[in-house]
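Bug #77: duplicate submission created two jobs. Keeping one. Sequence:
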Amino acid sequence: MHIAHVFLLLLALSMPVLLSAEAAGSETLEGLINEALRNNPELRSLEEKKDVYEQRPSQAMSLDDPMLRFAIANLPVDTFSFDQEAMTQKQVSIQQKFPFPGKLGLKGDIARRDVVVVNEEYNEKKNSIIRQVKTVRNELLFLESSFEITTETKGLLEGFITAAETKYSTGKGSQQDAVKARMELSRIIKKVISINQKREAAYARLNSLLGRPVQAELHLSGELTETLIELSRDELYAAAEQTSPALMGMEQKIERSRLAGRLAEREYYPDMDFGVTYGQRDDGDMGERPDFLSAAVTFNIPLWYRTKESRKVAEEKANERWAVEQYNAMRNAIDLRIRELIAEIDMYRQEMELLKTGLIPQGSLSFESALSGYKVNMIDIMTLINNQISLYNYKLEYFRAVASHENSLAELEETIGRPIYPVR
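Kept job's structure:
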């Protein structure tokens, strides 16, 4: 190939274009999220846990099973005769325990709070799965863009090698130029291998989140693009307090502790056992013997309340204070994380703007100038290669900044517990 043709090809390939990952299939972000929410094993296990807890309130509010008792009373052991003694009876009893009024209702309320806590635990895991799907997808789109940019750079370096060898064969260059170019090519090939390995690992992680076999074929559609939105710190704080599953779950735990404290206070009041016994007697020598009917009410006496019931009340009050402090600590941690994420998002936004409007265009111009200088033997090949590698790194940094920006947005959504922008 004539050297002029080689340089024309290199110039065409080196035009500054911000590459984006091309759609390779029909796996949209919305489709991936919906599939993960249907099939993710961790999420499905929490769905089963929800079913478990939903069965508990009715159990907690139900009375204990009544007790049915059969007995023989006053049977003489000398004859074992049922008609010898007047007090000999065949008895049947039924007994039912009734807790003090209000106890069952409180137990049901506590069980319902447990259901809400588990629901919020499910919602928290759901938001985590959505964030992970978005993060892994962003990483894959970044790797696809990296692969495309790296492959382009590899082609340019191969062209440099061809040009250097052509110059050397015509006596206008040195063999050392070709050797240096091949060394840079080897570094780029190593990066291609690394990108392919990272892509395989990321696809396996995404398949795992989707509940698919890790080796299943998966194609992504869409591009790695920046989402530019205005974020109000105060609005995000307010949203987190209203929609964060972690905070809402802690609020339910506080209320559960309060209800448990009220139930512990009710333990000062006795429960009651009602029982009815029917005693059947056989007729004797003296004539007909009437049957007996007995009834009884039994109360438990909280005699040891200082060491039992009072200690239980103190325990539940301490649990309530503990839950309140946990809530305050979690709210502070969430507020801090929101502040950190806003700062990260703003930093990545500035970095993207600097790369897109400054460094990449400047790097492209610098590379074109170096290419022109190399064609007329004004600069050596390493200067040309260094300019191309700088441009290559700027492009990678841009897409890394975009991916990091989107990942921080995804984590911000998880932190406040709701979407900030619609899924694209």
